[in-house]
Amino acid sequence: MGVHGVKAVFFDLDNTLVDTAAAGRRAIEEVRGGGRERERGERRCPDGLCCALQVVNALRSKHHCGEGEARGICDKVQAKLLKECRDPAKTCITDLRISHWEEAIQETIGGEANRSLAAECYFLWKATRLRHLTLAEDTRGMLTELRKAVRLLLLTNGDRQTQREKIEACACQPYFDAIVVGGEQKEEKPAPSIFHYCCDLLGVQPAECVMVGDSLDTDIQGGLNAGLRATVWLNKSMAAPADASPVPHYVISSVLDLPAVLQKIEHKVNAKLGTDRVVSGTEAR
Fold first, then answer.
1. Running DSSP on this structure, what letter comes out for residue 173?
2. Long-range contact list for 158-165, CB < 8 A, 24+ apart?
3. Are the C-beta atoms of residues 125 and 94 closer than 8 Å to each other?
4. DSSP state of 157
5. How far is residue 126's CA from residue 91's CA, in Å, rounded to a whole number?
6. Read out DSSP for 95-130?
7. 178 neighbors 28 (Cβ within 8 angstroms)
8. pTM greater than 0.70 (yes/no)
9. In which band, very low, low, confident or very high, does the pLDDT at 85 lie, cut at 50, 70 and 90?
10. What backbone phi and psi angles, to 5 degrees, belong to 43?
11. What pLDDT, on a 0 to 100 scale, did the predictor assign at position 242?
12. 191 close to 220: Cβ distance less than 8 angstroms
């Protein structure tokens, strides 16, 4: 990686550098199973467990839910999160997710809507999830080494407040030269404009950049739209994509495989430069 090769790498955040989906599932599971964990006296995550118990206790004491009903509410919220679809211009994510809890409570036990209880449950679940968002030690090490050779930028779609809270929770700021949140820009991935904005921030050209992410529709399609040198798809399950999906330049099953991919890109660049020099020399004679 040098003058003629890759000068910058753009990383997606959610489910690429940090396992947001797993953190959300663990938060719901702690909330749902709070009573049992308390009975067993487990102490694996004291702060998260405290929040979980508070959610279950709030549902049981303020809405007279049984333990089974409280867990059923949590299950319904998890299902709603998985199906979530939102227009950022029209819907506040906090309002939407409070509504998930409000609806789940009504669907489970009936009665009038209780917005204040739903909000209490949401903020306790959110606090639990944020505590589970971590940037793994081996990922930190990889970023530290990569940054010695190239510039690194974090490029994440989503609501400004939500994404900034995640970034703060996993303490990833020191590993990047710049951080760009889609919700703070005019357009999000896969629009070319946000990628070109990132290039301008780092003082590089699109052909000198690589995009790494888990989403074919936003990360990979966006990188292709913007004319980046390469796109790297993180496909943890290594499942085959749909036929109509955009085609990434490289596929990896772990973000830790990225340095090897960057070496491949560099070798290709060097090989092409060597070929170009030979051709140029021949033509000159």
1. G
2. 158/14, 158/182, 158/183, 158/188, 159/88, 159/92, 159/93, 159/183, 160/184, 161/93, 161/94, 162/93, 163/13, 165/130
3. no
4. -
5. 18
6. HHHHHHHHHHHHHHH-SS--HHHHHHHHHHHHHHHH
7. no
8. yes
9. confident
10. -135, 35
11. 84
12. no
